[in-house]
Amino acid sequence: MSSDFVIGLAVETIKVTLLISAPMLLMGLIVGLAISIFQAVTQIQEMTLVFVPKIVAVLIALIISLPWMLNIMITYTQNILSNFPTYIR
Fold this sequence. Notes:
The chain is mainly α.
């Protein structure tokens, strides 16, 4: 196994990880930003106000994007397992 191969596999793994986590992170960012703007406009400075809407938004994003995420993970796993004999050479 060459170092180029290991680096390529690591890059692929990081790419898959970022793709899978992106919908939840973006939804949390959008909801957090909207609530921060709402707090700035209304001058409500309650720190716990952000947590429940963010949790709900992230769960909704997870439920909506779960089939897509599973498809990416299954494809990646199948690729790893089908090429396993070439990895151990």
